[in-house]
Specification:
The chain has two helices and five strands, in the order αβββαββ. With 116 residues, it is an alpha+beta fold. Strand 1 (19-22) and strand 2 (26-30) form a beta hairpin. The chain has one domain: HIT family, subunit A. The active site is at residue 101.
Length: 116
Amino acid sequence: MAEETIFSKIIRKEIPADVVYQDDLVTAFRDINPRAPSHILIIPNKLIPTVNDVEAEDEVALGRMFTVARKLAAEEGIAEDGYRLIMNCNNHGGQEVYHIHMHLVGGRPLGPMLIG
């Protein structure tokens, strides 16, 4: 069984967060250290540590993450100009919290994806 994370506590509302969306499959909240004017984390309510741990049964929740990203991008007013969706996996990928999450970032030009 995967270890509980800070995200699990946010899902259950045990610690405060600026939650902008929640349903039975996913929760979305503003990042506490935003890298762009709009920076929202979208997470499955089920604890899945990394992308390497995704199973076929998780496809519905992962698909919901994308439809919620589309909805929130529109609500944030960043859909037309564009935004970035980022998922990191493990240490070399830059993953810090081991509960998969999608970063929705936008509101300004984001530059190149990777820097040399």
